[in-house]
Amino acid sequence: FVPQARGKVSEIINGAIVHYRDDLDLQNLIDFGQKEFSCCGGVSYKDWSQNMYFNCTATNPSRERCSVPFSCCLHDTTQAVINTMCGHGMQARGYLEASAFIHTNGCIDKLVNWTHSNLFLLGGIALGLALPQLVGIVLAQLLINQIRDQIKLQLYNQQHRADPWY
C-alpha cells in the first residue's frame, strides 16, 4: 500500500499547507516537522504557493508573498535570536539560489523514509495501543456471557418453583 500511503500523506501535508495560518496548533506542528526533518513544503519549498498568504501571484497583498515559513530556513547555531523573516521572497528564487538560505527538499519523501526506517517502532506502538482494546473486548464479551447465564438461571428458577404461591 505504499502508493496509497504516499498519496494520503501528500493530501494531508498539502491540506495542512493551505490552512497553515488558520490554526496555531497546526502551524506549530508544521514548523516542528519542517525543523525536525530539515525540509520545506510537500514536494518542494514552492508548495507554499498553495497558501493564500505565501502565494506568488501579483494580486496577493500579503507581506509574506513569495515567502516560506521561518521553519524552512537553515539556522545558524551561533545566533541566539531566530530571524522569522528569513524565508522572505524565497519562492521567487531558483532551487540553487534558495538552497543557500532554506531547505529546498520536500517533507513527503523525508516522512515516508522515516516511516520505513521506523516500521518496528510504529508497529510496536500500534500493538501497544491495540492490545488493551482487545483485552477490553474479551472482558466485555465474558461479562455479556455471564449476564446471559444469570438471566437463564433466573428464568429456570421461576419456572421450576415447588411452591406456586412463592
From TrEMBL:
Membrane topology listed for this record: Multi-pass membrane protein
Main localisation: other
Residues spanning the membrane: 119-144
Gene Ontology terms, MF aspect: enzyme binding
CDD domains cross-referenced by the UniProt entry: penumbra_like_LEL
Family to which the UniProt record says this protein belongs: Belongs to the tetraspanin (TM4SF) family.
Name of the protein described by the UniProt record: Tetraspanin-33
Organism: Acrocephalus arundinaceus
